[in-house]
Write a structure and sequence with these properties.
Blueprint lengths: L6 H16 L3 H18 L6 H16 L6 H24 L3 H11 L4 H4 L5 H8 L6 E2 L1 H8 L4 E5 L5 H12 L5 E6 L10 H6 L7 E4 L14 H9 L2 E5 H8 L9 E6 L3 H7 L6 E5 L1
Helix pairs in contact: 1-2, 1-3, 2-3, 4-5, 4-9, 5-9
Length: 286
């Protein structure tokens, strides 16, 4: 996805929050922010790709502060929130055992996003408000049709905490006799899930786990490992979670592969790009 004008202040808002999490050294924060402002100044152009700029910003923060996981406490908080609401989500699913109900649960998990919404966002309130919400743009029937003939599904995971609800959907996907592989980050960035985070909630019990080979925000084809590029290319269906993956996938040549993006629309640029409203839940076939 190309940047919108609103992306520029969002990059700097995220940079400030990440710096505050990464270090208490005010002098260092100033020095790093000077560099980040320069990055935005030099990179922010009409045809720039949003998750490429975001990735560059967060890598600089990790490198300059020597903090490889600034969001570590937020990731822990995300898991705690997800596990707290898991029994309630399971109750809803038990009453309506359709694929769409599981997809809704996975999208509700996408609300657990400190990067897009900020570290002060009331995630618990957001989950409650979205539980009974319809999917505004709903390509679940197309997904179900594709699943009936697919052998391999590649599932691009997004945030820690969110993967607790992804596990429910993946268990449902297994009923279609597909081989599900979940892609996670090689190293921490924002509150994105890594393989060790997925193992902690037992995701390895229901799917194959692989690394994208990098720490990019979402997917950036040039950053992927050769091993992951092969997995990416060979999968029959691609299911993508979250904003960063949507931003990256829309800049790739995907061929005839069916690609489904599942997300809660947490920012105006994404809403504009998809053509929906802020706050909508979306299942979009690209």
């Amino acid at each position: 996805m190309k940047v919108y004008y609103e992306c520029a202040p969002c990059f700097l808002r995220q940079a400030k929050e990440a710096l505050d999490l990464a270090t208490n050294d005010e002098s260092l924060k100033m020095k790093v922010m000077e560099e980040l402002v320069e990055v935005v100044y030099s990179s922010f152009r009409r045809d720039a790709v949003s998750n490429v700029i975001g990735t560059k910003i967060h890598r600089i923060i990790k490198n300059k502060t020597e903090n490889e996981d600034p969001y570590i406490l937020e990731k822990k908080k995300g898991n705690e929130i997800a596990l707290k609401y898991l029994p309630k989500i399971k109750e809803i699913i038990k009453k309506d055992d359709q694929l769409e109900t599981y997809v809704k649960a996975a999208i509700i998990g996408n609300i657990i996003d400190f990067g897009a919404l900020g570290v002060d966002f009331d995630i618990e309130k957001g989950i409650i408000q979205n539980m009974e919400k319809d999917i505004a743009l709903n390509h679940v029937p197309e997904l179900e049709k594709e699943l009936k003939s697919a052998k391999d599904v590649l599932y691009l995971a997004d945030n820690n905490g969110e993967i607790v609800f992804d596990k429910l959907l993946i268990e449902k996907l297994n009923e279609y006799n597909t081989d599900v592989t979940v892609a996670l980050k090689e190293k921490p960035i924002l509150n994105d899930a890594c393989i060790e985070d997925a193992v902690q909630i037992g995701l390895d019990e229901v799917a194959n786990l692989v690394s994208t080979g990098t720490d990019s925000i979402g997917v950036i084809y040039g950053d992927m490992s050769d091993e992951f590029k092969e997995i990416f290319s060979n999968a029959d269906i691609l299911i993508s979670k979250g904003l960063g993956n949507y931003e990256g996938l829309t800049e790739m040549e995907l061929g005839d592969k069916p690609v489904f993006c599942m997300l809660n629309v947490k920012c105006t640029p994404i809403a504009k790009d998809i053509g929906v409203n802020l706050g909508d839940n979306v299942v979009l076939k690209l």
